[in-house]
Amino acid sequence: MTKEIIQKVKLVIIVILFTNSYLFGQIKKANSYFDLEQYHDAIINYEKILKKTPSNQEATQKIAFSYRKLKDYNNAEKYYAKATELNPTESSNYLYYGQALKNNNKIADAKIQFEKFVAKEPNSFIGKLMVQSCKDIKNWEVEEKAFEVTNVQNINTKDADFCPLVYEDGLVFVSERGIDLINESQYGLSSKPYLSIFYAKKDKDFKKAKKFSSQLNSLYHDGPVSISSDKTTIYFTRVEKKELGKSYVNRLKIFTATLENKKWKNITPFIHNNTNYSVAHPWISEDGKKLFFASDMPGGMGGMDIYLCIKDGDSWGQPINLGKEVNTPENEVFPYFRKGILYFSSEGHSGYGGLDIYRVEESQQWKNPENLKSPLNSSKDDFGIFYKDDESGYFSSNRDGGVGSDDIYSFSWHALIPQTSITGVIEYDKLAAAGVNMSLLDENDNVVQSAITDEYGKFKFDKLGLDQNYLIRLDEEDDSKLENSKLYITNSKGEKVLLANNISKGKFRIKALPFEYYDELELLKEEDESLFTVSVFGQVYSKLPGDYSGGMDVWIVDDEGNIIGKAKSDKFGKFSFDKLSPDEQYLFMLSEDDEKFNIIITDENGNVLEAAKRLIDGKYRYIRLASDQSVITLINEIDEVIKIAENENFIISKVLYEYRSAEINELAAQELNKLVLILKKNKDIGVELSSHTDSKGSDSYNMELSQQRAEKAVEYVVSKGIDKNRIKAKGYGETQPVAPNEFPNGKDNPEGRAKNRRTVFKVIKLK
């Protein structure tokens, strides 16, 4: 070997040694930043290494991880794709690669990587969750969106703006975050200013934001905040700046301050702060008795968990972990509690990617969290929600298309196309009609759905247009079935609540009402064959009205003698039937079949209308509408056409009251709403609202109370847009009971008294 060749070999060896020494030093320097979780500086050094040695496995692995922690998902995707090639045996590469793809809204590609991860780690919770989330996203995307989301103008900047809270005439929020609040040791390491609390006043638009408080904003990180309902106490996150060595981490802590003379004073650390872990993101309940926060304290489910402290005198009880239904091995952060519902953000539940916002109810013991879905959630981070009312509010997101890294967005519910379901049962000869073919027709007679009744005669039609009119047609050849079948609407428990209007052979008219509406209806009794009904009053006697006092069952029967309604006469022989279908003819039977008994029909005031004629088979016939009566044709709330005699009492369902009360309660309001609908459909009628009491109290007191009840009912109906001239209020006190206030033995009859505390309606033809 010549001297010249030896010199060249030495030079190559020196270059190699120098390069290796340089790379070793560069790796050591990059790793030191990485180990301190100073990912921004670590990336700069790893990039230098990869320029010289693109296939360096360690640098590739750690730069991918660094970009992931800084939530730079585009670069994380790029480097994890390379990491899976360079190190295919490392299972976590497939998980993180899939998460980066998912964050970049590449759901199908992400699912492939998650499945590769699960193949390597079949018992992994997070792996199975990620696969499931990809399936869920596919299903969620076909649903109609319930939110409208808008980037808030005049607040967002190129830096981070997040965690809004409505305060006074504007928004309090945190601004200039350049890192992830979950990983508290990253603060200040990505060339961004420290976090501060800002306030922007709103007139028509938001004004220029200003520092919220010089007392609260420190030289390090402050926010987010929660303010008590009386606006005197603020709870906020702060990171105190302490230089206690390279390995020391400044933890997130919660502080409070009180408002005195328009200044925030008495800054006090939360009793459960700790230098070994973070306690952050406080939210105080409206009653001031519950404090929710996020912490990575020992004993949790994983990363950051949601905790709750209960006020104990002037102090706070021990933190309570909300459990594995809320908390996961990943991070749960930014709790917000309103009206019994906890909202929080999580990486550990099925979601779109990054942090998604979820809700869970306290009344359900914090179980079954629900994803608020797109467009409120996105493939990036969505967090820090706040409702300004029941239908709108604000939240934070670093989704694509924003102004800065994190932006504040407004959201509002928009009207979904309302849909409902109809369930029911068909009966023939009072038995379930199984195997009946049915068609559902719209108002243009187009068949929109078909169904067949099951073995119990039940059927269901789904996804119906709310408040739309439909026709159900029985597709049967048997005329007897078509003519005599009855169709009942049922509630969610399968109980009959409504008889559908049979307009012709085998055709029934229905209206698709909210499904909850049927759950609020009283169960259909044998006599409850319509929502629009009439009252029939009568008296049993032998020779003269009032001479029979034995008490007797009175039945209404059909032509074949089947009992379809029952009543019991009182000690004066009087009886009444509420909620009778407005047929023109009724047949009565008495439990004591004796020709000596007679029946007269009266109005509610006891005035005789006519005698019911006794037939040869022992039935008594009453024809409700005599030929000389003035008849009013009405359309009720479910579009049945019926006939009512002028001044005849009718009942939708009686408005009943609490003892000694005239207030319109929730159930009473539901019944009056039906009356409102009838009045709107029938412009040429008026109504007298007659109110009644039971017999407790003096005559004068009861008369006054009944008048108050009638007037309260009128006020309610008028408030719904009905002309006051169409309604009269009349109180009758205790003079017209429809049920005995006492039993024959003199004991109190609470059920009878409840029936007597009522308001009923009488049709009046407008002139």
How would you portray this structure in words?
The chain is of the alpha+beta class. Among the domains are: 148-413, 6 Propeller (Neuraminidase); 419-520, Immunoglobulins (Immunoglobulin-like, Sandwich); 626-767, 60s Ribosomal Protein L30, Chain: A (2-Layer Sandwich). It contains twelve helices and 45 strands. The strands form nine sheets. Strands 32, 33, 34, 35, 36, 37, 38, 39, 42, 43, 44 and 45 form a twelve-stranded mixed sheet that branches. Strand 6 (221-227) and strand 7 form a beta hairpin. The radius of gyration is 37 Å and the shape is elongated. The N and C termini lie far apart (129 Å). The model is unreliable at 14-18, 177-191 and 526-531 (pLDDT under 50).
By CATH, the architecture of the domain at 148-413 is named: 6 Propeller
What fraction of the residues are assigned to beta strands by DSSP?
25-35%
Radius of gyration: 37 Å
The best one-word shape is: elongated
CATH-level-4 superfamily name of the domain at 148-413: TolB, C-terminal domain
Low-confidence stretches: 14-18, 177-191, 526-531
N-C termini distance: 129 Å
Q: Compute the number of strand runs.
A: 45
Helicity range: 10-25%
**Class based on secondary structure composition and strand pairing:** alpha+beta
For the residues shown, what is the average pLDDT? 83
How is the biggest beta sheet arranged?
12 strands, mixed
Under the CATH scheme, which class of the domain at 148-413? Mainly Beta
Provide a count of the helices: 12
In the CATH hierarchy, the third-tier topology of the domain at 148-413 is known as Neuraminidase
